[in-house]
Amino acid sequence: MSDLKQGKILVTGGTGYIGAHTVVELQNSGYEVIILDNLSNSNIKILDQIKAITGKAPEFIKLDLRDKAELFEFVATYLDITGLIHFAASKSVGESVKQPLLYYENNISTLVNLLGAFAGRKVNFVFSSSCTVYGQPDVLPVTETAPVKTAESPYGNTKQIGEEILRETAHASDGLNVIALRYFNPVGAHASALIGELPNGVPQNLVPFVTQTAICKREVLTVYGNDFDTPDGSCIRDYIHVVDLAKAHVAALARMEAGKMASPYETFNIGTGNGNSVLEVVQKFQSVNKVQLNYRIGPPREGDIVKIWGNVDKAAAELGWKAELGIEDMLSSAWAWEKYINSNPF
């Protein structure tokens, strides 16, 4: 553990999947962390798991970012916050198609409230964005200069709008620096198997559904479509280990703290630079973990992008970051986490 850095880092949604892994990496890098979370899609026991990994429990405050008065009161009380990582948002493409207003309220109004609460303050802001801002790219791998196309889902649209809000606010503000990290598809779990993806109810992402099917929590895994324009007909994604993704947030903070930003608002692709199809992931999971999966082919889902993977050269050159863990690490750690929570229910 390095010496404690100056200023506290606020992590919204910090008991969630990516948030918890990022809190671990922040604490291991010497930051003091405060988590805000309403626990709508996470579990308070994650705080104990973080402490077991790092030796220190982060400060935690239960707060809903939609409650503007409570949020403003909190921010006014904590004057030593110098950095902010914003994860708190709804994140399912399929759910957003069915409940668009829920996504605009949870993802846009909360961002506006957060920026309003910190107005006039000097703060380094890392935004949890997504490769969905690119829609279905014309050229692969997609770079940060690719056009932002019409969103394929309300979820994707909230990320596009969120980026626009942040870019305009950063350029209009004195002291607000923003880095938007455009994630590809985070999977896997911490090497300790003490934290990982812990969806409430039916999983919305592929790998938790894979692991839950493998351990017989789910009867069958549905692969949504097998006649897309890809080698095996299933969708292709750039899967990235969640620990690598968490480290990218620490790198983004370090860039802002060092005064290296070329402008008050920057974007970076955070992925591996390689694509794997859904069927490849299924087959790789079976071979790596020596288990059989019961899966079937279903109809395509509305809002899904056919294929996308990222060019991550900019992150390597300017953030000094690159993914280090491969698909085998992702799937073996996800399976270790699933077995852990099966024996140690949350």
Write the layout of secondary structure elements.
Layout (H helix, E strand, L loop, with lengths): L7 E5 L4 H12 L3 E6 L8 H9 L4 E4 L5 H10 L3 E6 L6 H6 L1 H18 L5 E8 L23 H19 L3 E8 L1 E3 L18 H9 L6 E4 L11 E2 L1 E3 H16 L7 E6 L5 E2 H12 L5 E4 L14 H7 L7 H17 L3
Parallel strand pairs: 1-2, 1-4, 2-3, 4-5, 5-6, 6-11, 7-10, 8-13
Antiparallel strand pairs: 9-12
Helix pairs in contact: 1-2, 1-8, 3-5, 5-6, 7-11, 9-11
Verbal overview:
By secondary structure, the chain is an alpha/beta fold. It has a domain at 8-189 and 240-272 and 310-324: Rossmann fold, CATH 3.40.50. It is 39% helix and 18% strand. It has 11 helices and 13 strands. It has helices spanning 17-28, 46-54, 68-77, 93-98, 100-117, 154-172, 206-214, 242-257, 278-289, 313-319, 327-343; strands spanning 8-12, 32-37, 59-62, 81-86, 123-130, 176-183, 185-187, 221-224, 236-237, 239-241, 265-270, 276-277, 295-298. The strands form 4 sheets. Strands 3-2-1-4-5-6-11 form a 7-stranded parallel β-sheet, sandwiched between helices. α7 packs across α11. The protein starts with 7 loop residues before the first strand and ends with a helix. The model has no long low-confidence stretch (mean pLDDT 95). This is UDP-glucose 4-epimerase. Belongs to the NAD(P)-dependent epimerase/dehydratase family. It comes from Mucilaginibacter pedocola.
